[in-house]
Amino acid sequence: MMVVEARGLTKRYSGSTVVDGIDLNVRAGECFGVLGPNGAGKTTTLRMLLGMTPPDGGSLQVLGYPVPAKAREMRAQLGVVPQQDSLDPDFSVLENLRIYARYFRLRGPDLEARIQELLSFANLSQRTDARIDELSGGMKRRLSLARALINSPQLVILDEPTTGLDPQARQLIWQRLRMLIAQQRTLILTTHYMDEAQRLCDRIAIMDHGRILDVDAPAALIRRHIEPHVVEVHGPGVDAWFEAEGRALAKRDEKIGETLFCYADDHHALMESLNRHPALQHLHRPANLEDVFLKLTGRDLRE
Amino acid sequence: MTASAPRYGRLMAAFFSLRWIAVWRRHARVWRKLAGPALLGNIGEPLLYLLALGYGLGAFVGELQGMDYVTFLASGFVCASAMNTATFESLYSAYTRMAVQETWNAMLYTPLALEDVVLGEAAWAASKSLLSATAILLVAAALGAVEGWQAIGVLPVAFLTGLCFGAMALVITAVARNYDFFLYYFTLFLTPVLLLSGVFFPLEGMPDAIRIGAEVFPLSHAIALVRPWMTGQDLAALDAMTHAAVIAAYTLLALALATRLLRRRIMR
Predict the structure, then answer these.
(1) At what angle do helices A93-103 and A109-121 cross, to 10 degrees?
(2) Which CATH number fits the domain A227-286, given the four candidates 1.10.1040, 1.10.510, 3.30.70, 2.60.40?
(3) Which domain holds residue B181?
(4) Nearest to A103 among B22, B30, B266 (CB)
(5) pLDDT of B29-72, one tens digit each?
(6) What number of C-beta contacts closer than 8 Å exist between A and B?
(7) Contact, A39 vs A83, CB < 8 A?
(8) Is the pTM here over 0.95, yes or no?
(9) What is the value of ipTM here, to two decimals?
């Protein structure tokens, strides 16, 4: 079953096309990542899924409901973790969950049990009476996640769930997201962290300029777009070495700043050559999602 | 009319769904946390003003329209306070919830619709108006400036007045880019309305332009209802209904316009 089905989804703002006729299929139970540079159209796409932004074209079904026509009904089964924590600063941790539950018309002993469950899921059982401004960034994000789960949603949409968090806090969020994935919930998340996308997502859509450039499992994307071996080279004389030896040995190359990226099906010849040039620093690694991302979206700085 | 008919339909449907009560409840729970100072302000402020102006200024004024100045003033105050309370709530507090705290966005991620948020905000603003009007009525009664139990009738008027000015303020909030923008509304609209609607002095001696101008705006109609009821004067049923209808019409127009402008701002 498809949780999200979008056909030709389009959004324009004053003449410029922000989302340009994308097709999107998200399957039940998968963790689906939307990866793209700033301004690629990720957040606008998510807002359309939520029914917060009316599309200018195309058709969209989320959880079987046509959106935006039946967005309100759809949202009863949806959880949202926004990019900016929108927790209620006037309430404690516990009250935030209780008040939010009322927006779903949830109440009674079942709700109280659910809240206790979510507090322990979010590692906040000891902080139930804390005010929001007393919480760390990681705690706030965990509370946002708990709040998004108050209605036991089938689908959870997360907009950059770990942006701005320290490594420990990110690990904890990832752990919790994996628990949700293990519970067969469908997750859609945007991120510009490659490691996050690679760790969590079953499938990834790479987006740029309002279009989806490719969709697949991370490993499949890497296989399709990038040679299996990458050798990064930098140091004095890197250009001379490349002209003399590297160009013949690398299947493809990219220069970003001071670093030369050599892509190859077999790295042995490259490594032998580099070992004869001790002035050059080099690192051999397998191809990763970042290579795919940079190849597909280009290397220009986005601001 | 054809374009706005479905909007009223959606507002109506949202009203009867009662989903907006969840929004109202959230605001009421925040208020309850700070109820002490809020209630002190609600009672203390009008008490001071009625004592100082009612008796201080009243000593020079004497009787107005056959009543003590403090009685005249108290009935105007109920309306002015309903107006101010709802306006502040729907400007500053609502703007904070909309643009700073992201409270509205968080609500809109749930089965609440924009109409529910607007209705909940307006109903909450009106509830605060009701609270402050009740406080003033009690203070005025303690000062002997209320004639008879029919004065209870001013409370629904205060609620309606709060709903009206709350909804109008939401229209301003919908187009505001910062808090300073509200000063335009105060200086160009609210203060003239406050001064020229018959709160502090009767409009009988005023030039026609001002008297007719005052009738265009809802505050004078609220006063036309509240003053007779608080002071035990006669008010014909038809007149009462006309005044209430004017305020109600402003309320409905403002609710529809606020919803439309907020949709343009938030759901874009």
Answers:
(1) 130
(2) 3.30.70
(3) 5-266
(4) B22
(5) 999 998 999 889 888 888 899 999 999 999 999 888 888 999 99
(6) 62
(7) no
(8) no
(9) 0.91
